[in-house]
Specification:
By secondary structure, the protein is an alpha/beta fold. The protein has six helices and seven strands, in the order ββαααββαβαβαβ.
Length: about 180
């Protein structure tokens, strides 16, 4: 799906690179295995794997019990937080993650990612706007354009978004994410 710094497809050359790519090549090169890349989406990845459209997924896929009942995982090679809200700069209504558990608060979440499962479990009363696709920054943009009060994402994605939009948005609970 393209999750920096783990996997990236260069839009000009189509070349795939990143930490997960390097790790996979280190495993497969000595075996003489050729890699054929297949693209999927966050909300289709598990189903595509189960249907045999590909053999393995190389991006960081958060381990959840529902997913683990159907697919196998390697040992983790990265840990990071998720469930981090991004809000407009100066927003002061939210002091705890539970403050988002309100039907009057519109929360943007990328469909198919672990943050969707987190919100469903921890914030069942929130007014959820599911955003399809692979680019989680599109979900965060919902806050910029005023279509959501907040957007929920993982720490690496939020940090990248904050670099691009430092004067418009801020992240809550970055130092102590609601989930890891």
């Amino acid at each position: 799906a393209g999750y920096l710094p783990f996997l990236r497809r260069d839009p000009n050359t189509g070349v795939i690179s990143g930490y997960s790519v390097d790790l996979l090549k280190a495993i497969t090169d000595p075996l003489g295995v050729t890699i054929e890349w297949k693209e999927t989406t966050w909300d289709n990845m598990k189903q595509d794997l189960l249907l045999g459209k590909f053999d393995i997924m190389v991006e960081p896929i958060f381990y959840t019990i529902p997913r683990a009942t159907q697919v196998g995982y390697t040992r983790p090679y990265a840990y990071f937080g998720f469930g981090v809200p991004v809000v407009r700069k100066g927003e002061n209504r939210f002091r705890r993650i539970e403050d988002f558990n309100d039907p009057k608060v519109k929360l943007a979440v990328t469909q198919g990612v672990t943050d969707q499962e987190f919100v469903a479990r921890k914030l069942p009363n929130a007014n959820i706007k599911l955003i399809p696709g692979n680019d989680i920054s599109i979900t965060l943009t919902e806050v910029l354009v005023g279509k959501a009060d907040a957007a929920i994402a993982d720490v690496p994605t939020v940090l990248q978004f904050l670099k691009v939009h430092p004067n418009e948005v801020e992240a809550l609970f970055l130092d102590n994410p609601p989930a890891i």
